[in-house]
Automatic annotation (TrEMBL):
It holds the Pfam family cNMP_binding. This is Cyclic nucleotide-binding domain-containing protein. It comes from the Bacteria. The lineage of its organism: Bacteria, Pseudomonadati, Bacteroidota, Flavobacteriia, Flavobacteriales. CDD domains: CAP_ED. Residues 17-121 form the Cyclic nucleotide-binding domain.
Amino acid sequence: MTGPKYDTSSLENHIKSYVSLSDDEILTLNSLVEYKQIKKNQYLIHEGGVAAMSSFILSGCLRTYITDNRGIEHILGFSTPGWWTGSLQNFYNDKPSELNIQAIFDTEILFFTKETKEKLLLSGAVFERYFRILAERSIIDFQARTLEILSLSAEERYWKFSNKYPDLMRKLPQKYIAGYIGVTPEFLSKMKSNGLRKQ
């Protein structure tokens, strides 16, 4: 096996933070993973599209969102370096994506196709364990996000976002922050002008 022409050390280190990897397992990982650049405003996947990829963020930022029947965007989350992203419905069920995943800034990813990820999982139990841990953490995060939407005020959601993504707070357009906390940009602007109580 030959190694990739791009740096996979951040992915290797991420995996090693959960499980131990042998030299042979690292070689297998590097032989299957692929690299892609996504320019600002380009899509990793668009609603209705089919691009079965499980993607690890190296640099930049992606937003995952849906658009309702009124044309309003609802941002489900942001993927920053060290995070995984993808449309699970598309990846595992071979269905067109209901999600849009778009680059907010120029972004670099490492990714697996459905075929290469299956090869990786079959190559050793260590990768099965790693992705099981990620799936469990994803479920926990999803439940926390759902509770946040249902139980917190817009102002409380704003501060939760601020604590979770402190770097993005300084970089993101206000419309994206509004889309994440579930208000219009106008409401967010009014809320901020009225003074946000520090949490």
